[in-house]
Amino acid sequence: MNKRVFLLGGKDLEMLEIKKILSEKNETYENKDLSWGAKLSDYRNELEKYNTDDITIYGIELEEDIKAPKNYIEIDHHGKNEDNPSSLEQVAKILNIELSKEQKLIAANDSRYINGMQNLCATKEQIDEIRKRDKEAQNITFEDEKLAKESFETACNNNSNLICSKTSKFTVVSDLAYYKFDNYVIYNNEKILFYGYKKSNILEFLLSQNIDESNYYYGGGDFGFVGIKDRILSEDKINNLLEEFKKFDKKEELYSYHTFMFPFTFKDHFKKTKNWEYKPFEILEQKDFNEYVYFYKHIQDAIYNKNNKNSEKWISKYYKYKFQKGKYSINCKKGVFELELDGLSLRIFNTDVGILSFNLKNTKYSDKNSILAINDFGRRIYPQFLGEKFTGNTKNAILSNCITLELDDKIINEDFTKFNTIDSFKELKKLNLLPSFILELIEDNFSKDEENLTTIRPIIDDRMFIISLYMNDALITKLQNYKECSNQYEYETNDSWYKYIFIDGDEKTCQSKHMTKKLISESTYDRWIEWGTLFGISRYSFVSITGSWFGKNRLLPHIQTMYFQIFTLLLAYRATIIKFSDDIQNVTNETTQNLEKLSKDTEEIYEKYLSFLNKLYFKEITAQDQGIELYNQAMKVMDIEKYMSDLDHEITQLHTYVDMRKEKERNDKLEFISKIGAILLPPSLLAGLFGMNVLILDETFWNQSVSLLLIVLSGIIGFLFTFKKMKMLKIIIPTILMFIILLTIFGIYSDKKDLEKPQEIEIKNQPIEVILSKEKGEK
User: Rounded to 5 degrees, what are φ and ψ at 638?
Assistant: First the structure.
């Protein structure tokens, strides 16, 4: 069996653990307590000593600045060896031993830094303990810790990720910066370190600056670190390099794409003005064709302008605002963010709802905190609350200082100062919450009420809906890390992913780990996580994060077309449902006393509801699996089906109420007829009992008077029996009246008997005189 000897490199925690293992296994090793950056030449004498055929020399993390002997084997995981396991793991494999959990954390710390330990499900306490021991091994002092903190705080105060270190021990500064920045640069007047950037980009930059490969080192994976060795560059060259890197890092590149969507309801109809141009759908390029065939035919009929704009069969109409150059600027407590206006569109639906959309390109801000700030502060259209200082308190929390929309030479600025006086709220009916950058675009396109106030009403609340695509290679690589120990991806408990989905521009709005994990699970669509793409859906957002190339060349066209249309439909559902609910409430409040108008208005609502169900509300919109899954998940997260069920119940209740009112009206009419019949029943009964000629009206005044009295009395009896109140009178008065009627009838009947006695008829003979006259012409 060949003998072996190990030559130990620069002193750190991993190297101390290797030394400990070698000692425990009685392995031969040489240790000169070298610092980081140890070279093979430091062991020149030992190489000559062990240069025999029966000995294998293992050099651990030693830079090969001299030619190695044939029996030499390199153990390293930096630079060209970064795809190798950590040095500790390589030694364990040679010795055929199993590493403990603690040793695995030490190995992960050295090869992949803090992220590597997180992937092994290390707790914050365990990570801090490993980092503490590593710094102790590198002889880092309290003074180094103090200087590192000062350096880090200075960079934070300047809102910069370029950190000028007051200590030469960069690892202390990096421990602080890791939790603050996605990527950062640490430098002093002798060296410079890039951390968290895509390695290939940094190497490309160093090559452009004529820095030879032998003068820098790298490790930690695709988004690990790249450092220039000590004393390679002068202080002036380092400063020049930083200035060039700023330009390189901020060169115009699409980092994110944002669409702010303002859903609203209105009254009457849309009136086109000169700036809004009706856009019939046309297939002008491949992406138009891809979008069109993505949807079922009935969806195409609903979202594309295929009919003439004056056709009465339209379901929706699409308009584009005409401009040459535009900008959407957000001034908030997080800074000023200027986004290029890529498009401004308006879709009107026949349910009296509309959606105004701002399409924005971000080519200036690459860090995740800027993306979160753009989404959170850019979507606010009025203050959610007012404090003692009115909007001063709101702007300190969630509201922008101002939002400015530039359209060619037109500048629209909204600073929300109209909410800074209590007099603005005295007439609630005249309270207009909409910002100027929305009102000035569409106010003149819709009818106003009798007091000349706009009828445009926001649907969600103080926020617009957001579609956002963020392209960040480092972040998606981190989020897609799979932890075997806990059987989950990094994104499932990641605060940054939660904040991106739920648009938290400042602090995370859920402070429960269990609830955070549950909400992320319900809101994430991760079909393509292994390929580096995640989607998130909430009631206020549809977001995605992916890599730079795939985002710009593959996903962005989908975001701008198919996914935009899907969420346009979903927002239209939500807005229409709320519009129907408002209409139902208005109908029941205003027309409850007028059954005819109530019935007519209810019929109109029901007809519109049926049209909405048949022509706009769809259970499925595409045959594509991903489209089906995203649509179904969005329907669930946005509670569309629940809202539809509630609306259906409201309409059913309204119909039930109208039917009940109609039934009551019919019953009231029948009851009235019944009462008339009841009043006429006693006279009819008298006629039936005694015959129509029982009253001889033409004989005596007594008979005439009594007959009229009997008719009136019998009618009164019938009326009293139909009257709802006076229960005792219903018994007493009819009894008395009936007694009077019987007496009267008895008297009449007696008179009738007298009238029926035979009378003598005297017949007298009278002569008849006949006079004959002469006919005409007789003489």
Answer: -85, 0
